[in-house]
């Protein structure tokens, strides 16, 4: 099993910014290094038994890595589980470097080694990792879902402020969307013994989520006039930190078992959050 690549110095700050958003999701992540013919590297957070948020961040590999070399018996892909704080520390060090080599090494335990050259001299930083078996890596897949119509979200910063105020009053958030031919309305609300608060957002565009862009024209999402869900307020809040990345698009899709919030951060970065639905009382 081998991996070695150079991280583009001009993209490190952006990589760090996205990693800081993902740090809001959980403490442990999986870096999925794909085969050379697959132009996609992922950072994954899997939901735990308590019903936390799952997140999948996709990076266009060719825009981030140079001289990408990888070999493994698992179709030349490698999954590395690591502490998110360790990854953040390495990326912060890399922001000052003009040469960044990343490689999988063994120093008593497996590590993802960062070898960086900065104006002050070389810096080496090792991230202890757990190398996932092929079976375990195969478990880190997005949830199955039906194709449903979604809607564009209002400005995330605005929703984040609203949800933060609601968090002190309630643990559950009620989402209700009404979809018309080309527009949607979204209601966000909470209900407590002492108060009922809701906010309505109108004139939102309709969104279609496609697993495979090559089938975009052949397979269309199923329109649903009205859809609603109840989710944990703190879970929903975690995905709203994405406003700090100023995403190009933010869309929401309400499925039978979860609510998905999809952020297109840039042309080569996207993040999908999967928030488990709660059973309505």
UniProtKB/TrEMBL annotation:
Compartments reported by the entry: Nucleus
Coiled-coil annotated residue ranges, if any: none
TM region positions: none
Keyword Nucleus: yes
InterPro entries, per the entry: DNA_clamp_sf, HUS1, HUS1/Mec3
Keywords associated with the record: Nucleus
GO biological process terms held by the UniProt record: double-strand break repair via homologous recombination; meiotic DNA integrity checkpoint signaling; mitotic DNA replication checkpoint signaling; mitotic intra-S DNA damage checkpoint signaling; nucleotide-excision repair; telomere maintenance
Assigned GO CC terms: checkpoint clamp complex; nucleolus; site of double-strand break
Main location: nucleus
Family to which the UniProt record says this protein belongs: Belongs to the HUS1 family.
Name of the featured protein: Checkpoint protein
């Amino acid at each position: 099993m081998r991996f070695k690549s150079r991280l583009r110095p001009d993209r490190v700050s952006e990589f760090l910014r996205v990693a800081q958003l993902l740090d809001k999701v959980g403490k442990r992540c999986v870096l999925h290094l794909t085969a050379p013919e697959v132009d996609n590297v992922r950072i994954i957070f899997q939901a735990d038994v308590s019903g936390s948020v799952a997140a999948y961040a996709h990076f266009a590999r060719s825009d981030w890595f140079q001289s990408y070399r990888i070999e493994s018996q698992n179709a030349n892909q490698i999954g590395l589980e690591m502490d998110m704080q360790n990854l953040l520390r390495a990326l912060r060090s890399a922001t000052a470097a003009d040469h960044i080599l990343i490689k999988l090494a063994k120093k008593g335990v497996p590590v993802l080694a960062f070898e960086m050259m900065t104006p002050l001299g070389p810096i080496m930083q090792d991230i202890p990792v757990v190398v996932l078996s092929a079976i375990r890596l195969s478990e880190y897949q997005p949830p199955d879902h039906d194709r449903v119509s979604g809607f564009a979200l209002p400005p995330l910063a605005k929703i984040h402020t609203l949800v933060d105020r609601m968090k002190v009053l309630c643990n559950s958030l009620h989402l209700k969307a009404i979809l018309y031919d080309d527009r949607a309305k979204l209601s966000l609300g909470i209900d407590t013994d002492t108060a009922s608060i809701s906010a309505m957002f109108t004139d939102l565009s309709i969104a279609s989520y496609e697993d495979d862009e090559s089938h975009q024209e052949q397979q269309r999402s199923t329109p649903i006039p009205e859809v609603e869900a109840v989710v944990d307020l703190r879970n929903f809040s975690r995905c709203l930190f994405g406003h700090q990345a100023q995403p190009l698009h933010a869309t929401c899709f309400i499925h039978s078992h979860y609510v998905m919030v999809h952020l297109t951060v840039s042309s080569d970065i996207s993040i999908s959050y999967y928030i488990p639905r709660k059973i309505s009382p």
